[in-house]
Write a structure and sequence with these properties.
Elements lengths: L29 H9 L12 H17 L7 E6 L1 H12 L5 E5 L2 H12 L7 E4 L16 E5 L1 E2 L4 E2 L8 H4 L6 E5 L16 E4 L11 E6 L1 H12 L10 H8 L10 H17 L2 H20 L4 E3 L11 E6 L4 H10 L15 E5 L6 H17 L1
Parallel strand pairs: 2-3, 2-4, 4-7, 7-8
Antiparallel strand pairs: 1-9, 5-6, 8-9, 10-11, 11-12
Length: 380
């Protein structure tokens, strides 16, 4: 190789139209930014307890209900702090005594650490699988909350939230809850609300917005649990109190001031998905993009999907291992050509790229990215 990776110039005709492939924060659609700009004078910088903002929150809650096909009694609960904040809120407001966690990556492990540290909860049951795969839940009469992860962002492993073995527990007396961390899956992977009690996420990934907000889709059983714990007198900081969050959400507001830009960007993406054909349409865009990346990797002798089991491969976050060439050099060359955020997850420590395939990313851009990597590897 002559020069450095950053000196490689990719021909313009090979490059994607938009070079943002980050796994979060993700690409924000330019159309959504224009919509935000159009509301600069009558929405940004206004009170979140007045009609101008509350009407947008109301539209967002309605869009989420329609997009995910939520049934009677389901509620869309909003609050500040993102998914990380929601873990703390769930420890105070939704987990009764003991949770079971499936851990198979950085983020699923973090939630289990939250409940393990909570002094008012029993030690959680933790079922772990090696990175690159996922475990399955085990029915246990002593568990009141099963914590699943729809898509592990750090490793590119996806799992089904339909776990039939939990059905009896969910419909028992009292029922156990199934909570699903859907931060990098919501809006890009299909699921059935009949399998879940709380499906929560932050909007800086598939919903192409900024972070700092959590959205929790709560079944009637989840709402009942929140209200019962609230009535028990358990101490909860107000900002982590899901009963307060639910009461405010019913009024189309949040307990404390939210990032108004995040709410509007999330709404723009949700309504774009609905206009395009709904959740199945959005998920098909991700599946097309990730399929192009996986097919390309399988056809190269220097690349291979990190997740060996095709059934566990994420349709939204592609982790690709490299052999004989440095993934860091590839990422540096891509970045020098305005193709950004493809670096591997730092704590995984592999010679790897991590490529997002969220609905806002054009499938044609995902295909163009693979051509750019080929061009770089030839010169490395």
């Amino acid at each position: 190789m002559t020069g450095t990776p950053s000196s490689i110039s990719i021909p313009a005709e090979l490059r994607p139209a938009d070079g943002r492939f980050g796994s979060g924060p993700s690409k924000v659609r330019p159309e959504a930014v224009k919509a935000l700009e159009a509301r600069a004078l009558d929405y940004l910088g206004t009170s979140h307890r007045r009609t101008g903002v509350r009407s947008v929150v109301g539209r967002l809650r309605a869009a989420m209900t329609e997009l995910f096909g939520l049934g009677d009694g389901w509620e869309v609960v909003l609050g500040n702090g993102g998914s990380t904040g929601f873990w703390d809120a769930a420890a105070f407001s939704m987990i009764e005594r003991r949770a079971q966690h499936l851990t198979f990556g950085e983020f699923s492990e973090k939630f289990s650490a939250v409940t393990a540290a909570a002094p008012h909860l029993d030690d959680p049951a933790v079922i772990t699988a090696p990175y690159g795969s996922h475990p399955v839940p085990e029915l246990d009469a002593g568990i009141d909350t099963y914590a699943l992860t729809h898509n592990e962002t750090s490793t590119g492993v996806a799992m089904s939230v339909a776990q039939p073995q939990l059905g009896a527990s969910r419909h028992g007396t009292p029922p156990a809850l199934v909570m699903v961390d859907a931060t990098s899956a919501a809006g890009a992977m299909t699921w059935d609300p009949r399998d879940v009690d709380c499906y929560y996420f932050a909007p800086q990934k598939a919903f192409a917005a900024d972070g700092g907000l959590f959205i929790a889709l709560c079944s009637p059983a989840a709402i009942e649990r929140i209200e019962r714990i609230d009535a028990s007198g358990r101490y909860k900081p107000a900002t982590l109190d899901l009963a307060i969050a639910a009461r405010n959400s019913r009024q189309d507001q949040t307990y404390n001031t939210p990032a108004l830009a995040t709410i509007l960007l999330t709404l723009e993406t949700a309504e774009w998905m609905l206009d395009g054909g709904g959740l199945a349409w959005a998920a098909s865009r991700s599946a097309t993009s990730s399929g192009a990346v996986y097919d390309w990797a399988a056809d190269r002798d220097f690349a291979s999907p990190f997740v060996a089991d095709e059934a566990m491969r994420s349709p939204v976050v592609c982790t690709i291992d490299f052999e004989g060439v440095s993934a860091d050099d590839i990422a540096a060359a891509l970045r020098a050509n305005d193709i950004v955020d493809t670096e591997g997850y730092r704590k995984l420590g592999r010679n790897q790229l991590r490529i997002a395939a969220f609905p806002a990313i054009e499938p044609s851009d995902a295909e163009a990215l693979t051509a750019c990597i080929d061009y770089i590897v030839e010169r490395l």
